[in-house]
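Hypothesis: this fold can be encoded by more than one sequence.
Test: take the structure tokens below, design a sequence, compare later.
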């Protein structure tokens, strides 16, 4: 099974670039920029990555992002992630970034987006890896602040395919961002949102109905509503599920308890993603390995999950077809 996972070309649709900042690079950047971090060693950092829920992670994650100052820093972080893509045979990736995490600290929007974009351009040039960028609003901040961010992003519209919503879900329902998502839609952005990670099914329903999103990030709580499950199946709305993240943030107690196989068997459009791999013990392939080690997933299931990612990607039909053909060619050697 591991050979199949390694050999399959994969797409990633749920990856926070700030969540790919490895402790080693965090230390390097803290020295380079003379920014203090509350750890003495890489081991100490790793020991701090012991989360009890989403908020306990976010507190540490935002503190880690403080070491990112220059365009080169954003380039280096993105390039390290690209090297992991290469290693894991991820050939297309749609990455999130959180502009407000940086603009709030006085870092220019331009610095952030240009560092990320240049690394992604280099990835296409050197490795043929294709990519898109999605900007997320932080939902613990106000809609007014999200509007400011949307207005700032308009100058970079060519480089940003979509808008998302992340950070603390509970207490920050989709309704809070209804107007700013309306404007983003009018501006031509694709729309996604984290929903049903910790929040109940109403967060997913409202993200679909009020925000008009095209993909649900996480969405694992959908299982608690038969009506919603049927809708997600009928409309084939993609769910970007992140197994390692769900275990590390205690959404499920362990991999055996994870509901991904049930969601898939019900007929939902499920994809596998790494979310914040530097914090959640592994990149794309490791997520698949952990699932296969603990759940009765077949080779056909793995191929389906991988194909779903390409089908749900924000790429042209022509490119989709090309990628799906590549998968079929690899898959037939294993079936
Ligand atoms: N899993 C997650 N949920 C919400 N916000 C996030 N930001 C980074 N990772 C996140
Ligand atoms: Zn996420």
């Amino acid at each position: 099974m591991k050979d199949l996972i390694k050999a399959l070309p994969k797409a990633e649709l749920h990856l926070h670039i700030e969540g790919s900042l490895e402790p080693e690079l965090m230390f390097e950047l803290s020295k380079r920029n003379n920014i203090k971090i509350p750890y003495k060693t890489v081991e100490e950092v790793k020991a701090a990555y012991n989360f009890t829920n989403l908020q306990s992670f976010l507190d540490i994650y935002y503190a880690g992002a403080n070491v990112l100052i220059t365009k080169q820093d954003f380039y280096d972080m993105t390039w390290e992630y690209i090297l992991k893509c290469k290693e894991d045979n991820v050939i297309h990736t749609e990455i999130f970034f959180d502009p407000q995490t940086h603009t709030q600290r006085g870092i220019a929007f331009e610095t952030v987006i240009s560092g990320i974009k240049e690394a992604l351009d280099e990835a296409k040039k050197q490795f043929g890896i294709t990519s898109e960028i999605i900007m997320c609003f932080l939902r613990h901040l106000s809609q007014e602040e999200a509007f400011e961010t949307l207005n700032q992003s308009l100058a970079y519209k060519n480089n940003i395919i979509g808008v998302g919503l992340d950070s603390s879900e509970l207490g920050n329902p989709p309704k809070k961002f209804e107007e700013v998502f309306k404007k983003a839609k009018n501006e031509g952005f694709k729309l996604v949102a984290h929903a049903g990670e910790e929040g109940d099914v109403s967060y997913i329903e409202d993200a679909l109905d009020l925000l008009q999103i095209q993909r649900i990030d996480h969405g694992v709580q959908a299982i608690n509503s038969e009506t919603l499950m049927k809708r997600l199946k009928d409309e084939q709305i993609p769910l970007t599920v992140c197994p390692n993240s769900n275990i590390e943030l205690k959404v499920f107690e362990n991999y055996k308890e994870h509901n991904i196989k049930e969601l898939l068997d019900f007929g939902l459009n499920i994809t596998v993603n790494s979310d914040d791999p530097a914090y959640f013990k592994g990149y794309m392939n490791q997520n698949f390995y952990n699932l296969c080690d603990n759940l009765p997933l077949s080779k056909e299931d793995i191929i389906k999950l991988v194909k779903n990612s390409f089908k749900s990607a924000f790429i042209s039909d022509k490119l989709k077809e090309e990628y799906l053909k590549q998968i079929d060619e690899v898959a037939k050697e294993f079936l």
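Residues 109-127 form the longest helix (19 residues). The domain at 2-18+73-331 is CATH 3.20.20.140 (TIM Barrel).
Hypothesis status: open.
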